[in-house]
Specification:
This protein is α/β, with parallel strands linked by helices. About 25% of the residues lie in helices and about 30% in strands. The N and C termini lie far apart (about 30 Å).
């Protein structure tokens, strides 16, 4: 499975579309196989979901995400997880072992056009 995490430095970004980029992580047999950084090409409605779908992400993790981005990911068959915070390494490890928890929140409340 390939996951994408919105990141700022080595922390999960609070806002999916306004992060510095995405940590793309390939996971197989409960092991991280490969990690790569993909810079954010700019926040524009619909652009980032298309880009991450083209990169074949099966899941996107961010602190928060606007409703339109969530809708586009759902339409593409990509799971979204919001309400997560912490270091990338801790989040990836928790995801790999099925122990990722969220606070149920989504600090992104803007309306995307």
């Amino acid at each position: 499975m390939r996951i994408a995490l919105a990141r700022n430095g080595q922390q999960l970004a609070e806002h999916f579309g306004r992060c510095e980029g995405y940590e793309i992580v390939d996971i197989a047999d409960s092991e991280v196989m490969e990690r790569q950084f993909v810079p954010n090409p700019g926040h524009e409605p619909g652009r980032l979901p298309r880009m991450l779908a083209e990169l074949q992400a099966g899941c996107v993790i961010a602190g928060g995400m606007g409703p339109r981005a969530q809708e586009l990911f759902t339409e593409a068959g990509i799971e979204t997880i919001t309400g997560v915070s912490g270091s990338l390494n801790e989040i990836i490890e928790a995801f790999v072992w099925g122990k990722l928890t969220t606070d149920g929140g989504n600090p992104c409340h803007h309306i995307e056009s």
